[in-house]
Structures are given as structure tokens and as C-alpha cells.
Amino acid sequence: MDKAYIFEFIGTLVLVLLGDGVCAATSLNKSKAKGGGWVVIALAWGFAVMMGVLIAGPVSGAHLNPAVTLGLAIAGKFAWSSVCGYIVAQMLGGFVGALLVYAFYKDHYKATADEPDTMLGTFCTMPAIWNPWRNFLSELIATCLLVFVILAIGFEGNAFQVGGAAASTGALGAWPVTCLIMSLGMSLGGTTGYAMNPARDLSPRCAHAILPIQGKRDSGWNYSWVPVAGPMAGGCLAALLFLLVF
Predict the structure, then answer these.
(1) What is the pLDDT of residues 129-182, one digit of tens each?
(2) What's the half-sphere exposure (Cβ side, CA atoms, 13 Å) at 138?
């Protein structure tokens, strides 16, 4: 097995463990962090992505998101031969990360058994206002911006001088992407919860479906296509826009 696949799995696992973890911490009953609010969630998701990038970046490039992988491939920045392997690794990582969140907060899920919507929200996204096509547009726009900025970060014109030598913004490592995730969450997350990543949404949704969670509701399958199709379409659009603009 390609080592890059292993690191995509681990990086995505950590992303979901910490990302869904903050959703559980701020939402579930008897959690010391309950009520932490949207700013805490947006900040923690940014740092969750940072941790995943720091782990996987040196080996796999830390896509951690099928929409990013697809967008990079369309933009000519990633080999098509590795796309399927990356996506499978990411989806498996997201699934295992969600299982670990449940194991970690199991007592708190039990204490929240009378709030099935709250429990589902610690695994995956659901819209604030039910309007599937507008929700799809929200995910498309947010993910398009995510992938477009990721591509722009590595562009040769986005550079500065360090000791007389040119260095790209991407040389700063995970920090630019961390700021990007935080900004997207705070500015564009209010409609759908800003999934922007099938491995962050569909995989944990599947975990919710199979776990023996007391009092749980259905897993929202009538909405599940939105945080998959929207991000994948957004990633494709971002790549095409990048090729057109840059």
C-alpha cells in the first residue's frame, strides 16, 4: 500500500476526531464545554484541519478531502492515478474518526438521548433552513472558495522574501489553510454547517447509522447528497476557475 494513502487516512481521521469532537463537546449534555458556541466550533475546526495537515502534509500533501483531491487533479496539480486511492483513504479515515468521537463521548450521548437532532449534528451536517438546492449552492460556493484559495496559496506569484530567497505562502505550512477554514466557518457556515468535505460528512453519517446510539433519529439520508454533491461540484468549479484566471 502506498504510504501516502495511509497518511491521508490518519490525517482525515484526526481531522474528524477533533472536528466532530468539538461539535460533541459543545452540544452534548453534561459536557464541560456545552454551549461553547459557533466561534469555538469554527476555531476548533480550523485547528483540526491544521493537525491533520501537519501529520499528513509531508507524505501525502494532506488533501484530507475528496473535493480537494478532485480539484487538484483537474487543475493538473495531482496525478489522476492516485485519486481513487486518496478518496477511499479519506472516507475510511472520516468513518473511524467518527467512531472514536462516539467512544470518547459515549456517556454524554447517553445523557443526550432525548435530543436526537443534537446527537446527529455531532456526526454530520443538516441545514438551518430546509431548501436542498439552496443548501447545495451554499456547499458549492464554500467549497469552490476553499479549493480555489488552496490552489492560489501555492501559486508562484503568491510569494515573499525570506533571507533574500523567494518563498511561497504555502511554505508557511498549515497556517494559511487553518485561517481559511476558520474564515469559511464564520462567514459561510451558517446555512448548512459548512461540510465542504464528503469525508467529513458522509463517512460520519454512515457511522451514525450503524452505531447503537440510544434515542438516535434517522441519519438524514434525504439530505446526505447535498454535502457530497455540493463540495465535489465546488472543487471541480474551483479548478476550472483557477486554470482560467491563473
Answers:
(1) 999 999 999 999 999 999 999 999 876 656 554 555 555 444 466 899 999 999
(2) 24
Grid cell at residue 174 = 498549515
- How far apart are alpha carbons 223 and 124 in whole angstroms? 11
Rg (CA), the chain: 18
Instruction: Give the separation between CA 246 and CA 242, rounded to whole angstroms.
Output: 6
Nearest alpha carbon to residue 178 among 26, 25, 15: 15
| 49 neighbors 64 (Cβ within 8 angstroms) | yes
50-95 pLDDT, tens digit per residue, is 999 999 999 999 999 999 999 999 999 999 999 999 999 999 999 9
The parent domain of residue 127 ranges over 3-245
**Domain tally, the chain:** 1
CATH code, 118: 1.20.1080.10
Locate 132 and state its grid cell.
436542498
Q: For residue 148, what is the enclosing H or E element?
A: helix 132-153
Residue written as cell 472520516?
94
Helix (H) or strand (E) holding 104: helix 83-104
pLDDT digits (tens, 9 = 90+) for 20-47: 999 999 999 999 999 999 999 999 999 9
The x, y and z cell numbers of residue 166, run together, are: 523567494
Cβ-count burial of 169 within 10 angstroms (0-12 exposed, 13-18 middle, 19+ buried)? Answer: middle
Entry pTM: 0.94
**Residue 184's closest CA among 129, 131, 147, 223?**
147
